[in-house]
């Protein structure tokens, strides 16, 4: 498991910060909006979201399962969200609006997805946590789960943060 400083676990984000992150993530990032990605938890050490199964998200040849590209894009987005939360926690001395501006520089530099089982479910939970937040690069680990809690896919990624 990643090492989280005790201080990070006790940080409580302001409503302004959480609402700002949700607005960026769910509304301003058009692809996330198309996926229907909805944030369910933003904490300094872990983020969670949900995607409801819809016809637009299925693969061409598998009519009842979510497309692998949707899984990959969702997990990449979640890794970025986890980095946003970790950066937000690191800079609590700044105003929420200042911390939100830091996210413009965030970008994926490496992404690996392991598809463990077919993506069949009414809805899916996505989770991500930061393994290491450096001054330039952040490393994350992500999970894609079915409604019954079964692990369907895992991911790991690196993001440029400066």
UniProtKB/TrEMBL annotation:
UniProt keyword annotation of Ubl conjugation present: no
Keyword field: Hydrolase
Keyword Hydrolase found: yes
InterPro entries per UniProt: ACOT13, HotDog_dom_sf, PAAI_dom, Thioestr_dom
Superkingdom of the source species: Bacteria
Domain Thioesterase: 64-151
Family statement drawn from the similarity comment of this UniProt entry: Belongs to the thioesterase PaaI family.
Protein name from the UniProt record: Thioesterase domain-containing protein
Taxonomic lineage of the native organism: Bacteria, Pseudomonadati, Pseudomonadota, Betaproteobacteria, Burkholderiales
């Amino acid at each position: 498991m990643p090492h989280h400083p005790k201080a990070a676990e006790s940080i409580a984000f302001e409503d302004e910060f959480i609402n700002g992150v949700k607005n960026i993530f769910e509304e301003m990032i058009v692809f996330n909006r198309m996926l229907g990605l909805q944030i369910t938890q933003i904490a300094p050490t872990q983020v969670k979201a949900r995607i409801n199964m819809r016809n637009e998200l299925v693969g061409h040849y598998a009519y009842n399962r979510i497309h692998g590209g949707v899984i990959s894009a969702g997990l990449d987005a979640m890794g970025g969200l986890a980095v946003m939360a970790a950066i937000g926690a690191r800079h609590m001395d700044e105003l929420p609006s200042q911390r939100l501006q830091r996210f413009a520089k965030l970008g994926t530099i490496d992404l690996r997805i392991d598809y463990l089982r077919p993506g069949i479910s009414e809805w899916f939970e996505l989770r991500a946590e930061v393994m290491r937040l450096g001054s330039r690069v952040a490393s994350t680990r992500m999970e894609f789960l079915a409604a019954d809690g079964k692990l369907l896919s895992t991911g790991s990624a690196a993001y440029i943060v400066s």
